[in-house]
Amino acid sequence: MADQAPVPTRLTVLAGPTAVGKGSVAAWLRDTHPEVWISVSATTRAPRPGEVDGVHYHFVSDAEFDRMIADGELLEWAVVHRTARYGTPRGPVLEALAQGRPALLEIDLQGARQVRERMPEARFVFLSPPSWDELVRRLVGRGTETEAERERRLETARAELAAEAEFDVTVVNHTIHDAGEELIELMRS
Ligand code: 5GP
Predict the structure, then answer these.
(1) What is the CATH number of the domain that holds 112?
(2) Rg of the chain (C-alpha set)
């Protein structure tokens, strides 16, 4: 948006419970604020319908993920929902920051903790649901997981909600637009 002040250089980490809408807020930011660089994670999980390799994730094999860890290519990584590994390629993050671009990582809580250790100067934003019931509704509403998978994700979400106090700031995701606007304001401040 040409009439607004440029976003200063800063690494922002967006985390929060599963299905709270982190991905949707990040997608909104990608569409409306192309000046923000958004990390593309590597993952060992299979693509969902519509997901494009290199755009939504780098979909890699277990062996390739092992290699990335061994070669120190990941800024952080974690097993999420006890099913697949996800990690942030380090090089592109450093390149984006070196180019003066504001950068966003949309990752899980375990990953956020690792980034806090390695890059404590980053800003840590917790995206929270308006309520627990709303979080459950969003989780079920997505309809892409099996019952067992949903239960696993709810279990993860309960633990993740308790971690809010570890974060610099909380954004409540009432709507994607409002949460996105709040996030971009934080990235500017
Ligand atoms: P999904 O499989 O639904 O795309 O993502 C599952 C979870 O993995 C989400 O909570 C998302 O934030 C997390 N995630 C995605 N990329 C990364 C990453 O690079 N590192 C970590 N630690 N978590 C990630």
Answers:
(1) 3.40.50.300
(2) 16
